[in-house]
Amino acid sequence: MQIIERSEIAPNVHSCKVKAPDIAAKARPGQFIIVIPDEFSERTPITISDWDVEEGSISFIFLDIGSSTNSLAQMKAGDEIYSLTGPLGQAFEIKKYGKVALVGGCYGIGGIYPAARALKENGNKVVCYSEARSSFLLYWNEKLEAASDEVRYATTDGSMGFKGHAHDELEKDLKDGTGYDLVLAVGCTFMMYRISQVTRPYGVKTIVSMNPIMIDGTGMCGACRIEVGGSTKFACVDGPHFDGHEVDWDVILSRRKAYLEEEIISGERHDHGKS
Amino acid sequence: MAKVSPTKTPMREQPAKERVRNYDEVPFGYSPDEAMLEASRCLMCKKPKCVEGCPVEIDIPGFIHGIAQENFREGVNRLKEKNILPAICGRVCPQEEQCEKKCILGVKNEPVAIGRLERFLADWEAQQGEPELPAKPKSTGKKIVVVGAGPAGITAAADLVRLGHQVDMFEALHEPGGVLVYGIPEFRLPKAIVFREIGFLEKLGVKVYTDHVIGMIRSIDELLDEYDAVFLGTGAGLPWFLNVPGENLNGVYSANEYLTRANLMKAYLFPKYKTPIVKGRCVATVGGGNVAMDCARTALRLGAEKSIIIYRRSKEEMPARNEEIHHAEEEGVIFQLLSNPAAFHGNSQGWLKEVECIQMELGEPDDSGRRRPVPIPDANYRVAIDVAVIAIGNSPNPLIPNTTPDIETGRWGNIVTDPETGKTSKPGVFAGGDVATGAATVILAMGAGKIAARGIHDYVMNHT
Fold this sequence. Notes:
Chain A is an alpha/beta fold. Chain A is 28% helix and 31% strand. Chain B is of the alpha/beta class.
């Protein structure tokens, strides 16, 4: 699969557009791909952030956080990705909900974009919450603004929009009487956990896009199992979208940390992908 | 005539102490002399029983005759008439349950080592350089798509392309081979052999597309618009777990995940290959089949000090091949029989620390005819472990049934097929292998691929 465009759109946040006409024709909001940048890398699940059927391309956002994503971050337009499979997972259901809050952080700012666009087209009132530590880490602001009714920014240093986290801002809005019919959160696990916590007392249905460690992505290996409502689910085929109020967050937070030591070993060996 | 040896000609192998420290293949295979000696044991029966025992109906006396006459090329040709993957089958088929079980010699003595001879011919051919391609068949103008590049799909594709059909094969993973690549370890089936056999298929004209998850990127109906028939060989799907407390702790793997990390993703070469695996000092594998033996032996090669098999019945009931059990024992795998996990216990960081087992005793036979394990009350015990691998089976892959509502499925989510033709309830769609039967063996999947190829040929020539 050939890379058409590659850029670092914010420090450590990378976007990648690849030629993948078959995937572009099938992709729906909330689905993901599995990428292996080079022969030695891991199978890495990444949320699809945009696609263009006419151009035959898909785009995705990723953070340079491990040895394999680091290899991907070294790649340029014109390079061939070793393996790219998708679309995978069940799409986020697009229908008329009413007023919807979409919360994105890290890669999830790009991750909520397809849902924003589709929900708006289906007559929903769409409010996006885009969060980062500082304003220079936010991206796709214009794109999100064009696809939704309102974008509310949250930065922990207060350099743009609300000072604090998106969950603080959402909680304040809920407290102030803003009603939502649905919340969708896409981003780091801890953010999705906090969003689920703040919406629970208000009884707002909250969908989270789970991002456990995966291998095949087709239901074969069970690496991505999480606990939802007391039973074990496979995020790749049963998800990735689950009710945030039903997810056992301790299990997912612990399982995501399974290979921290190995990440360090791999990172040292590959010297940031230059070997 | 010289007296026939009562026992099989032994096959040399790596000593257990050496091989647990490497990933190289365990047995070395026969030399030409050893193969000819073994071939001379065959009685060349007029009505060979062994062929009846072979799911793909190989002319067994025919290929053995070739070896006995030192005409290995002739032997290879006979073998490949029916079996496109002899190097694989010679290594992983349960011959003792099939061809060798029926061998007349086996009544009083050991049967002919048919599997070892099959392997010999396949390896001999590989050493001769490029394999001979059969004459190109006349094109039928029909297009057939095979979904899943595992044993069932490869066999169906090989038979169909040799009948003159155009065959495209889609594989979900980034390498073709299915369980032969992600599941069976390198030390039992070197991947170079699998790729060589698939390369042969491509030379016959089959186009292989990896990274294509059918059901997601294309539906079965979309495939039917483009192709005259579809074969589904999508294999085993969701791994079964025990459903006991603590199974989602870090350090608990399904066999599929453990083996996929180690084999397909080459975690045994970490950190050169970046996919990690928890190596563990004490690894417990739960289950008694071939997959469980593969996991327990992989654990040793990854550096475990102790590798335990936990199995709820006794050794007699173990479904694994004797050869696999024997190899595991030689390598130091500990068999903790009549035991079943009741729970996994972890530390405060969510890491596995102990398995708690129920002690069992054997009661009356159950539906399978095997004596049912019955728990002994108040006899639970704990073992300190840091990795557990659950190897108790899989249900068929759910992706196609989930995305193809008009295909009939059975109780276990398997696709229902006519055993004579491989036909499913959906016109033009055929299936075989684990997706139809539930988890079984490589050779049974290949047999199903063969049956379906015949069914598909009949269908496309008469109905499309």
